[in-house]
Amino acid sequence: MHPDSATGPLVAALDIGGTKIAGALVDSEGRLVARALRPTPAGPDGDRVMGAVDEVLAELRAAQYWPAVVAVGIGSAGPVDAAQGTVSPVNVPGWREFPLVPRVSAAAGGLPVILTGDGVAMTAAEHWQGAARGYDNALCMVVSTGVGGGLVLGGALLPGPTGNAGHIGHISVDLDGDPCPCGSRGCVERIASGPNIARRAVEQGWRPAAGTEPTAAAVAASARAGDPVALASFDRAAQALAAGIAATATLVEIHVAVIGGGVSAAGPLLFDPLREHLSHYATLSFAAGVDVVPAKLGTDAGLVGAAAAAAQALQLFPTTA
């Protein structure tokens, strides 16, 4: 993508996950004016992963608009530690307390670098250009292989000291529930993520169509056909999400919950029972009536949000409506 012009100063954005490292130059209107993409190298060699990041940055530095870049924003799978500039993504085994911020700053010619978790980045994107636009108090969530999230309070992104604030996936909503890999029990993620929707359905006797993998998408297909076990697995996921949203609304008074990620593609199978359960969990006057809406930005949310988070932190350009 090479438009004829870019508006205002630019931010170089990185969206780092277990399968891909995406980069873009983002202008003050949220447009991606250049892109770069590399697969995330597998295995324990952290320098190989950093090599892919370096390649993405080198491609962006070769773009015609690079001279207008004033900062780098990173949205990374977590845990991240923005205070220390390090990342330890669960799905990138080569990075444990990896000093990503100084390495990226060096590769970007000494530019300032702002690091956030990927859920916070998605939240920044949806508040700036997506479904949370115009709301001063919002929770945005990614429901996919895991469950992440972020908060907007008082009109501003709230990343927290380490860049992980709003991580709703690890609120415990079932005190005696299944152990979660994080070390707790009954976490929202352990119930509502795509793999756990499929796991629960299989445990209850559901099987995918012949030749189909047992995924949340396959469970959704069965649920649309009326399979009671598949429907029940989505209902349980919706209940967990509703409990987490209600807890958040009670704690900080949000007015909208935006849900993206692959599981949100189930549409009414997820959103209808979620709204119904939420009406029973969020009952106090100040917590009731939260709008629950699907995210708008799709796969570009990580890049747009990494840029928005950096722009807000460094006061580069307005990122609110």
UniProtKB/TrEMBL annotation:
Keywords noted in UniProt: Kinase, Transferase
An annotated Gene Ontology molecular function: kinase activity
Domain of life assignment: Bacteria
Gene3D superfamilies: 3.30.420.40
Keyword Transferase attached: yes
Pfam families: ROK
Similarity annotation: Belongs to the ROK (NagC/XylR) family.
Designated name of the protein: Glucokinase
Organism: Actinacidiphila yanglinensis
